[in-house]
Predict the structure.
Amino acid sequence: MGKPRQHVTFYVEVSDVSVALALIESKGRKKAFGPRPVPTGAIIAGFTDSEGYLAGLVQQAAAM
């Protein structure tokens, strides 16, 4: 088996993941995953930057 990958992914909080991801894609970046919900109720998505590194977006769960 190969050497395990070690990396850190940072997430930027946005008010609407879908809108932010669409803007990022319109600038030529590629969607990596999402949007998808996580157990906390937040919504996350990922994209690759201009050098191919993964970065994330997070939309916090709506307050009750």
